């Protein structure tokens, strides 16, 4: 028998250190997974609970054939309504009526298409839709997600029943870590517990608000049950939050309603632009089978996507408001900037912008945009053309509920 006295202290110490390291590594999210905001497509905004294996296959094929994959959309996220009952050992199963071939087969199909699988669960016993969720089975579920080849978990907050949010999300973070498969962890507790204050070490993105709905500026009260918010309502809730986001940890103002029907094309463009200015996750939610060319053009505009995906990872800010016209700035890597002229009004706005009139200061990054000492080249990102330099007054008409978006290149 080995007595404690016969084990060298150094060995004991290194064993202890190894234990600490391994214990500690279960108390971390997977790093480097979302250094730029995640991009993908999610079932919920179009289909809610009305989807099945065939629909997901169609969407996967369309993401690839439409060029969305090449533009950066990666995660195919199966939202609420996919889980079946637990098996006799407590493992989660998939609803076999919706997914007759099973989830592993679907996962393989998604991966073979060069895409990644996202799944959804909830901190409660039941999801928002009343399906089996992860409470009390967090480690077992994370293991199952890993076995299914999951790359992204959206974790919702329905039926939370007074549970502590930091604890609930940290438990699932640790469960994902223990399962050993890197997954982007998307925390969906609607901003109720200020996740921006504690979320960076727990997940890769956190919802900042309740659900978005496909309208410009409405509130849907669901008959008094809860509120869903139009695009402008959600946008206006983001202002105090920009300091909290950055590479690997993003504010999530919810998924895109671009192409979901009730927004005009200009509104779709403005919505997509503002999400890019916010460095928001770009998770499309439209029916790709019926998507128009114009909507596809918005979702795949690479120069606008590059604004969202810029490696500096800094959210833009509204610098001024003049009547219905807001002017937003976003500092980019390598000294470039983006300026967005955003017309929230119902009539067109004629713009004459003198770049030299004042210096733009970003207190967060301590950076300055000075056009009096340097003439930037101007690139109109929606028109896809160069448009002079900041040496001259910029003139344009901004249509109602629409934007003019310029990249200032050094
Ligand atoms: C909540 C979430 C939504 C969606 C639904 C699914 O409302 O906030 O994004 O996941 O649940 O039921």
Plain-language structure description:
The chain is an alpha/beta fold and 410 residues long. The chain is built from 12 helices and 22 strands. It folds into 2 domains: 30-308, Aldolase class I (TIM Barrel, Alpha-Beta Barrel), CATH 3.20.20.70; 317-409, Immunoglobulin-like, CATH 2.60.40.1180. The chain has helices spanning 9-25, 44-47, 53-65, 68-71, 103-112, 138-147, 165-179, 195-198, 231-236, 265-277, 293-299, 302-308, and strands at residues 39-42, 75-77, 83-86, 92-94, 116-122, 150-156, 184-188, 205-207, 219-220, 228-229, 250-252, 282-284, 317-322, 325-331, 337-343, 349-353, 360-362, 367-369, 377-380, 385-389, 394-398, 402-409. It has an 8-stranded parallel sheet. Strand 17 and strand 18 form a beta hairpin. It starts with 8 loop residues before the first helix and ends with a strand. Bound molecules: alpha-D-galactopyranose (GLA). Residues 44, 79-80, 128-129, 156, 188, 211 line the site of alpha-D-galactopyranose (GLA).
Short structural description:
This protein has 12 helices and 22 strands.
Please render the helix and strand layout as text.
Blueprint: H1 9-25, E1 39-42, H2 44-47, H3 53-65, H4 68-71, E2 75-77, E3 83-86, E4 92-94, H5 103-112, E5 116-122, H6 138-147, E6 150-156, H7 165-179, E7 184-188, H8 195-198, E8 205-207, E9 219-220, E10 228-229, H9 231-236, E11 250-252, H10 265-277, E12 282-284, H11 293-299, H12 302-308, E13 317-322, E14 325-331, E15 337-343, E16 349-353, E17 360-362, E18 367-369, E19 377-380, E20 385-389, E21 394-398, E22 402-409
Parallel strand pairs: 1-2, 1-12, 2-5, 5-6, 6-7, 7-8, 8-11
Antiparallel strand pairs: 3-4, 9-10, 13-14, 14-15, 15-22, 16-21, 17-18, 19-20, 19-22
Helix pairs in contact: 6-7, 10-11, 10-12
């Amino acid at each position: 028998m080995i007595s404690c006295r016969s084990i060298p202290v150094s060995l004991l110490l290194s064993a202890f250190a190894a234990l600490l390291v391994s214990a500690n590594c279960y108390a971390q999210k997977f790093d480097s997974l979302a250094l730029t905001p995640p991009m993908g497509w999610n079932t919920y905004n179009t289909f809610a609970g009305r989807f099945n294996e065939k629909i997901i296959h169609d969407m996967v094929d369309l993401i690839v054939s439409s060029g969305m994959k090449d533009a950066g959309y990666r995660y195919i996220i199966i939202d609420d309504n996919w889980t079946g009952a637990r098996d006799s050992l407590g493992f989660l199963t998939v609803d076999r009526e919706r997914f007759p071939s099973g989830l592993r087969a679907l996962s393989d199909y998604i991966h073979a298409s060069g895409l990644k699988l996202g799944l959804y669960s909830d901190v409660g016993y039941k999801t928002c839709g009343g399906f089996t969720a992860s409470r009390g089975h967090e480690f077992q579920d994370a293991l199952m997600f890993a076995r299914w080849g999951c790359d992204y978990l959206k974790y919702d907050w329905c039926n939370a029943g007074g549970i502590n949010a930091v604890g609930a999300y940290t438990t699932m973070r640790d469960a994902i870590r223990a399962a050993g498969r890197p997954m982007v962890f998307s925390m969906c507790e609607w901003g109720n517990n200020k996740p921006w204050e504690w979320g960076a070490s727990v997940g890769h993105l956190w919802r900042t608000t309740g659900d978005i709905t496909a309208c410009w500026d409405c509130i849907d009260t669901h008959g008094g049950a809860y509120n869903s918010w139009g695009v402008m309502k959600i946008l206006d809730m983001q202002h105090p939050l920009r300091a909290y986001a950055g590479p690997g940890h993003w504010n999530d103002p919810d998924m895109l309603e671009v192409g979901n029907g009730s927004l005009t094309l200009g509104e779709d463009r403005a919505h997509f632009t503002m999400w890019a200015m916010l460095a928001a996750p770009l998770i499309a939610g439209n029916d790709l089978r019926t998507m128009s060319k114009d909507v596809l053009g918005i979702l795949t505009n690479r120069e606008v996507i590059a604004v969202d995906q810029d490696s500096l990872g800094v959210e833009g800010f509204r610098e001024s408001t003049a009547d219905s016209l807001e002017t937003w700035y976003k500092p980019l890597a390598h000294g470039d900037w983006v300026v967005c002229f955003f017309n929230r009004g119902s009539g067109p706005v004629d713009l004459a912008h003198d770049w030299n009139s004042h210096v733009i200061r970003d207190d967060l990054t301590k950076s300055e945009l000075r056009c009096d000492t340097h003439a930037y080249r101007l690139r109109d990102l929606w028109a896809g053309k160069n448009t002079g330099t900041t040496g001259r007054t910029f003139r344009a008409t901004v249509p109602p509920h629409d934007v003019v978006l310029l990249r200032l290149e050094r």
